[in-house]
Amino acid sequence: MLTLTEEQYIFLKEYSDLLYTIDEAFDYIVKSFSDLSKTEGHRLLGDIFQALPQVAAANEQLSQLFQDNQQLQNAMKDISIVADQAELLLECFEGLPVRQEIISQKLYPAFAQWHTSIQQELNPYIQS
Predict the structure, then answer these.
(1) Rounded Cα–Cα distance for residues 107 and 79 (Å)
(2) Separation of alpha carbons 26 and 119, rounded Å
(3) Which residues contact 27 (CB under 8 A, 6 or more apart)?
(4) Could you give the 3-state DSSP secondary structure of residue 2?
(5) Is the separation of the CB atoms in 114 and 104 below 8 Å?
(6) Model pTM?
(7) How far, in Å, are 4, 47, 81, 104, 121 from residue 30 at the CA level?
(8) Which of 6-43 are b and which e, b meaning 16 or more Cβ less than 10 Å from the residue's Cβ?
(9) Alpha carbons within 13 A on the beta-carbon side of 52
(10) Which of 4, 2, 1 is nearest to 13 (CA)?
(11) What would the 3-class secondary structure string for 66-93 be?
């Protein structure tokens, strides 16, 4: 297993925290579809779309750091599934119900699955 510097450990921890924050935002957004008291869903979706390029940039750094970890490399490539679903949402102009369905049935599940696979690979490095 790769021995991390303090800087690398902090990077991995912040990356992991960002992924959990995105996951929580998606959860809130999906709940906001049926709970009208949750009014920040639209703003959070914008925040997620701003965070995704940061995730992509961090993935490049992770790819270099863990170039010998094939499982992590494979897990990182699966971000393309999330990107495809995000693009589908951006191209969807058919109205709110269709957009809600894409988020709750495609985009969020794709992100959650990808996040789980990445987290399984990162946990040995960031959990004490």
Answers:
(1) 11
(2) 17
(3) 108
(4) coil
(5) no
(6) 0.91
(7) 36, 15, 19, 6, 27
(8) eeeeebbeebbeebeebbebbeebbebbeeeeeeebee
(9) 21
(10) 4
(11) CCCCHHHHHHHHCHHHHHHHHHHHHHCC
Rounded Cα–Cα distance for residues 34 and 41 (Å)? 11
Inter-CA distances, 101 with 24, 28, 61, Å: 18, 15, 33
Q: Read off φ and ψ for residue 98, nearest 5 degrees.
A: -70, -40
- Give the rounded percent of residues in the chain with a pLDDT score beyond 90: 78
Tokens describing residue 11: 């990077």
Structure tokens at 12: 């991995």
Tens-place pLDDT, residues 13-65: 999 999 999 999 999 999 999 998 999 998 999 999 999 999 999 999 999 99
